[in-house]
């Protein structure tokens, strides 16, 4: 689209998570200035946990002028290691894929979720973000949509991006009312000080300890903060969104794991942990109309086993901005965006449902062979 058309395009982004905020940043860098992000919460917030920003995601931040802001609050990581539960056997150790695919080498960057969203929102032009706006209804009128919010306000937009997460209202109203799917697992997450991690913070690499019955421990060091993001994922039939857990239950789960993991678990303050039943969604047939598109978890929520959800949301944002620049119209851009991104996220959704089988791990990155 022509720069003048992009400048005048009235864009509403629903949801101020990683996907919505990254979309706002990507669009502002291509000259779309009439962009508003509507977030339901009264303040932008993320749970206490770490994630890894993969090399292609880091490359986008370079393009968007945000690399320094992200680098200032993250640690560069070289590889992912998959170990047996007791830590004695390295099952796979591989460099993060695509680290050397760009003019400048991009490590994966390990970052606290809260620091990441703060840095991302800090990169947005002023006044783009409206908090306290919970979308309750959307009417797609072809080239324009009407949005209704719980606070009584309404607005119209030429392009709506539904980045409102796994329980997306935009998806439910316009594309699919099928509910999220419970995976039969829980994730228990906390960020602790390195001093409380019994010697497990010693370099900048992500370690995944694969136990029996699909119990996994993810150790993600955040050395720039002197912290460890500690995540236990385990099977459960309890599908309540925020299941209750006890210290005894967690200690039982990690029996037979590396003794540093057992000792760390024993010392945890369970009241500080984020406990979540893990859900994803089935792959959608279509995630755009002529003027509305889904992005991130709203389009393709996936299980967290390989750590692609937030990365995919940000890469969606990059692809959408590229498509708008390259296409002749919004309608054509949205078709192009889905054609580029959906085959990739369909495959990531599929792979994430396979999880990790402790007895059968060939590679730390199962997506490497099927996604180029
Ligand atoms: C246990 C666990 C571990 C994970 N680990 C990783 C990892 O290591 N790496 C990785 O890449 N990904 C990981 N993920 C996935 C990642 O968290 C998500 O994929 C990512 O947060 C999706 O971003 P999003 O912006 O699409 O959605 P969200 O982060 O869910 O953001 C949606 C936003 O929309 C807002 N919203 C919702 N409804 C409305 C409404 N009606 N009106 C207005 N606003 C609304 C919400 O308040 C929220 O701010 C993990 C997920 C889990 C559960």
Structure description:
The protein is α/β, with parallel strands linked by helices. The protein has a domain at 3-52 and 69-74 and 114-180 and 282-356: FAD/NAD(P)-binding domain (3-Layer(bba) Sandwich). The chain has helices at residues 3-8, 18-29, 55-63, 67-71, 113-122, 169-174, 247-253, 259-267, 297-300, 309-326, 330-354, 367-370; strands at residues 11-14, 35-38, 50-53, 74-77, 79-84, 90-95, 108-112, 129-130, 135-140, 145-149, 154-157, 159-162, 181-193, 206-210, 216-222, 227-235, 274-280, 292-294. Helix 2 (18-29) runs parallel beside helix 5 (113-122) and helix 2 runs parallel beside helix 10 (309-326). The protein is globular, with a radius of gyration of 20 Å. Bound molecules: flavin-adenine dinucleotide. Flavin-adenine dinucleotide (FAD) is lined by residues 14-20, 38-41, 51-52, 133-135, 163-165, 169, 187, 189, 276, 278, 296-298, 304, 307-311, 313. Residues 14-20, 38-41, 51-52, 133-135, 163-165, 169, 187, 189, 276, 278, 296-298, 304, 307-311, 313 line the site of flavin-adenine dinucleotide (FAD).
Largest β-sheet summary: 7 strands, mixed
Number of helices: 12
Give the number of DSSP strands.
Answer: 18
Average pLDDT metric: 96
CATH topology of the domain at 3-52 and 69-74 and 114-180 and 282-356: FAD/NAD(P)-binding domain
Order of strands across the widest beta sheet? 6-5-14-15-16-13-17
Q: Structural class, from helix and strand content?
A: alpha/beta
The shape is: globular
Low-confidence stretches: none
- Helical content, roughly? 25-40%
């Amino acid at each position: 689209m022509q720069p003048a058309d992009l400048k005048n395009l009235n864009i509403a982004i629903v949801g101020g998570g990683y996907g919505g905020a990254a979309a706002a940043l990507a669009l502002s860098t291509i000259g779309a200035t009439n962009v508003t992000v509507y977030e339901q919460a009264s303040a932008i917030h993320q749970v206490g946990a770490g994630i890894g920003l993969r090399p292609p995601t880091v490359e986008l931040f370079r393009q968007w002028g945000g690399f320094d802001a992200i680098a200032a609050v993250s640690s560069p990581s070289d590889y992912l290691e998959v170990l047996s539960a007791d830590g004695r056997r390295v099952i796979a150790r591989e460099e993060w894929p695509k680290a050397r695919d760009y003019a400048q080498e991009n490590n994966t960057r390990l970052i606290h979720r809260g620091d990441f969203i703060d840095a991302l929102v800090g990169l947005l032009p002023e006044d783009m973000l409206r908090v306290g706006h919970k979308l309750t209804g959307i009417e797609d009128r072809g080239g324009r949509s009407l949005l209704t919010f719980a606070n009584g306000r309404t607005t119209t937009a030429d392009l709506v991006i539904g980045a409102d997460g796994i329980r997306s209202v935009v998806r439910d109203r316009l594309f699919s009312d099928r509910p999220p799917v419970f995976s039969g697992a829980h994730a228990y997450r906390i960020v602790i000080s390195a001093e409380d991690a019994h010697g497990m913070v010693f370099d900048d690499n992500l370690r995944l300890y694969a136990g029996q019955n699909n119990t996994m421990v993810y150790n993600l060091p955040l050395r720039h903060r002197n912290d460890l993001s500690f995540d236990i994922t385990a099977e459960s039939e309890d599908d309540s969104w925020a299941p209750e857990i006890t210290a005894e239950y967690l200690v039982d789960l990690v029996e037979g794991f590396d003794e540093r993991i057992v000792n760390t678990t024993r010392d945890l303050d369970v009241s500080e942990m984020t406990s979540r039943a893990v859900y994803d969604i089935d792959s959608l047939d279509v995630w755009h109309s002529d003027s509305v598109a889904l992005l991130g978890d709203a389009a393709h929520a996936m299980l967290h086993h390989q750590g692609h959800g937030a990365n995919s949301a940000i890469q969606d944002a990059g692809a959408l901005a590229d498509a708008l620049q390259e296409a002749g119209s919004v309608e054509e851009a949205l078709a192009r965006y889905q054609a580029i991104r959906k085959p990739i996220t369909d495959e990531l959704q599929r792979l994430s449902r396979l999880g990790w089988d402790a007895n059968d791990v060939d590679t730390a990155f199962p997506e490497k062979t099927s996604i180029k």
